[in-house]
Amino acid sequence: MLGWTGVFLNIDLTQRKATAEQYDESLALNFLGGRGFAAKILWDRLKEGTDPFSPENLLIFAAGPLTGIGLPNSGKLVVASKSPLTGGYGDGNTGSWAAVYMRKAGYDAIIIKGKAAAPVILHIKDDAVEFVNAKDYWGTSSFETEERLKKVYPRNSGIVSIGQAGENLVKFATVVSQEGRAGGRPGMGAVMGSKNLKALVIEGTKPIPLANPEEMKKLAADGYKEVLAKPLYSFWKRQGTMSTVEWSQENSVLPTFNFRQGTFEQAEGIGGFTMEKMKVSNRGCPQCNMTCGNVVKDSEGKDSELDYENVGMLGANIGLGSLSQVAVLNRLADEFSFDSISLGNVVGFAIEASQKGLIKEKFEWGDFEAIEGLIEDIAYRRGVGDVLAEGVRAASAKIGNGSGDWAMHVKGLEISAYDCHAAPGMALAYGTSSIGAHHKDAWLITWEIKAGRENYDKEKVAYLIKTQLIRGGLFEALGVCRFPYNSLGFGLEWYHKYLRAATGVEFSMDRINEVSDRILNLVRAFWVREYGKEWSRELDVPPMRWFKEPLVGSPYEGSTLNLEKYNAMLDVYYQMRGWNINGVPTKETLEKLGLADVAGRLYAKV
Known about the structure:
This protein is 43% helix and 14% strand. The protein has 606 residues and is of the alpha+beta class.
């Protein structure tokens, strides 16, 4: 087997035992890696109905066949588990040297189960695994943890860790690397905390096996040159994703005051051009030459790495118009190991609940000091922070009074930074994303605005499915970043060439689409299996705020989504995916994709 290492590392924290496992080549050919491996492992090995915080839940770090190879943006690692936030499939990718060194240590995935008796750090160096006492690290931030570990272990190590939010089982805690590279929005950091696992330190010294090393070397060099030559490259290096603030403001999709408005009066103060004046450096993932992390000095004089999502959610969505203060909240999110998107959503929900008199605590839009204190309370589960640490779905269920209509989530995962009052296609993308409401799987909104945002037509559904197969399938399985493709126009044909040079196998676009479809159907089957009788198509419908409450304060003032038309569009989506009226993959669809065993187990329950 070339391109893949062919080995998984199984770790049992309860037994303090590590074993290497050779896996069959058919798994690689049918699921590629990354999300594909994670979904397959969870489906096959996790007992149905397992509590996400049970020692039996699996925490998986999975790479793809291109991860760690010196080609554009290939430092990605998928971290996955059954989500404590949503109860379904959860994952996220993070750019980290841990991804590179995991592959050089000889592993395509690390599968962790059990619970350590006391806080522990896993030190993996090639074939050796050490369980290190983490007592003195427990209670520290992800930044401090990594800083201290860097003094203990060699420079050529990859580190992922959790902060206090992960330790305290905040259900939207992430894993963090390199002071701002975070992944696992649906609570993978909380699963890590539930296992008493503070960090992983990975060293690897082995070469990644390649079918054609010389061809790969040339293709990689040519790819880097191609990225540099793209017309948008220079502006990207200046602003990265931060230019999206101005774009979202212009198109009335900037989430403002808990997704009530699509524009923010103080948007200029948190936008890309303001960021440029404050910027002190760029950060990026390993092997990336289009570094997207814009580092600024925050109002407390510390470095904070900004991108659009955290600024949209910790700025406009909570009414905060000072970028230096937004940067403080973003840094705190990374230190505590919060997902910044969910955090901004939860804070916005809390402010609105306060103003409606549904909680006794008093919060105002844009009140920086109060919000900073609230974030700390959530990290340590103090007072109302304990309720909010469960996420907006659970918080709204507790406070009631119609708050479910403006608890901005899908399937329990808080919505990322695009208002969809006047964007039905993007609303459908959120509704059908593999992990809950997340833009990563299908960032449809720029295309939709050009194609006609008012339409609920078949063309829009077809385009959504196409983007999901690419963004949620191809890139999540290969172990590379999507930004060269979707932000600069780096062609998909490069990835066919890279796969051939790495594996020696010819993957046509049709074959890759089939693999992507297989992965996304397996993910959907996992959701249905875990929800059981509670599964329904209503889970694919975004919050009622977008249907019931007209947009205010923008050129699209008065806009709402049409529920009847949305459901009709959802029907078309199901038909095109080969799913039934309830959004469950049919037996025929699963069997066609080589998932007959999945069909047998799923339809024994449905």
